[in-house]
Design brief:
By secondary structure, this protein is an alpha+beta fold. 26% of the residues lie in helices and 32% in strands. The two termini are 27 Å apart.
């Protein structure tokens, strides 16, 4: 039996779970032969992050990222009442998968540093964790919509880079999240 999820009266067939983040579950979904990411917001506790209204934050952060010029998937639809978002699907490996599988991410460090510079220039930090970046045709995309006001503590060089190679931090996370 296939699972269908409705977003503003449009039915999407769920193909598989792509991942769970601190704000929601992301599924690969299909409609009329096209693939999308359908994100369902959850309200499970998160010990290291405090949320306000998650669906409004997603909508606002999407606009902030667009305005800043960060390369992100297009938001196709948003269902405020049911807390669901449909995004363009960017097909490719995540930086996390590449690091885990010993594929060099060196070719993407210049791109992520440029993206970090763009974000900082707009007064933003994005979530530099490597599961949030997909490589498609040699180009990295930030597939999350989370962003926060800029702070040195959470920028790429001080925090994110710790997870872009097999550092102790990366290996600990990978061991705890098999």
């Amino acid at each position: 039996m296939e699972k269908l999820i409705s977003v503003n009266s449009e039915e999407y067939k769920i193909i598989k779970l792509l991942g769970k983040g601190k704000g929601g579950y992301s599924y690969l979904a299909e409609k009329e032969g096209n693939q999308y990411v359908l994100k369902q917001i959850h309200h499970e506790p998160c010990s290291y992050y405090t949320f306000g209204n998650k669906i409004e934050a997603e909508r606002n952060d999407y606009q902030r990222l667009l305005n800043a010029g960060i390369r992100i998937p297009k938001m196709v639809d948003i269902d405020i009442e049911n807390e669901r978002i449909v995004k363009e699907y960017i097909d490719g490996e995540t930086i996390f998968e590449m690091v885990k599988n010993d594929i060099s991410v060196l070719p993407y460090l210049k791109q992520i540093r440029q993206m970090a510079h763009t974000a900082k220039s707009a007064g933003l930090n994005i979530d530099y964790f490597p599961t949030n970046f997909v490589v498609q045709n040699g180009i990295i995309y930030y597939i999350d919509y989370e962003c926060n006001n800029y702070s040195d503590e959470w920028n790429f060089e001080n925090w994110g880079i710790k997870y872009w190679s097999k550092t102790p931090e990366f290996l600990e996370y990978a061991a705890q999240n098999k």
